[in-house]
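Late entry, written up from scratch paper. The run itself happened at the end of the previous shift, but nothing got recorded in the book at the time, so transcribing now.
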Amino acid sequence: MIEWPSEALVDLNRHRNSLLLLAACASLLTLPLVAFQNGKSAPTELKPGTAKVNPVDQQRYVWIPPGNMTFGCSTGDTECFEDEYPQRKITLTKGFWLGETEVTQEAWARLVDFNPSVFQSSDQLPVEQITWDDADWFCTQIGGRLPTEYEWEYAARAGTSTPRYGKLDDVAWYYNNSRFSTHPVKQKQPNAFGLYDTLGNVVEWTHTNYTTQLNQENINPTGPSWAEYKSLRGGGWWDEPRLIRVSYRRHFETIDSDYNIGFRCVSE
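Output as recorded:
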């Protein structure tokens, strides 16, 4: 049996511990987990639709990559309103994490004791009767914010240039098929980014101040700095087909609420 000097044993143990530490770090790098970025940009290698769970509201958020789109009335769409013009190219230079679904009543209850919703048959229904102030507060509490109007339309289009990202009845709950109620999220087909119910179910608040003349910023637009109303997008269960289009815009005051209005958050 070989007798090792005590100094050699100490050095050997230190070397072994270093190797174990390196191995542990390497194994962590291979785990399929995505941490919240705390305001930092996510790695560029993330694929569109990569998902993670927010630890506060426990909802899934999907990665929306940077890119560009034609904002406003879709080419060939004959149902557009005046405030959907003019078309213009928009570029978003940073990707972002957007709620896979509208905020559900289950997620709302994790932060708020009172459920304002009219329809409460399932905790997977979107929370509704929500003011802009309520939605803004909730998104801030989970470490995020409401999406801008431009982020919302870019994410809803998911690379398409048509008024809808699929056949209307396949992707949306609206007046003709909703049976006059909201429905649990994720019952209709998602878009190419993996987002559900961006069209139909409930209309969604955005962070953007509404103006009838579209702001002319083309790179990372934020909209006007002040306005009487906030923009909402997406159409809801009570709306006719003409209103269930990705470019359709509506507006309400921040204190307004309705059983057709909900929201989804961006996570930073």
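The helical segments are 6-29, 105-109, 132-141, 149-157, 168-171.
(Scratch paper discarded after transcription.)
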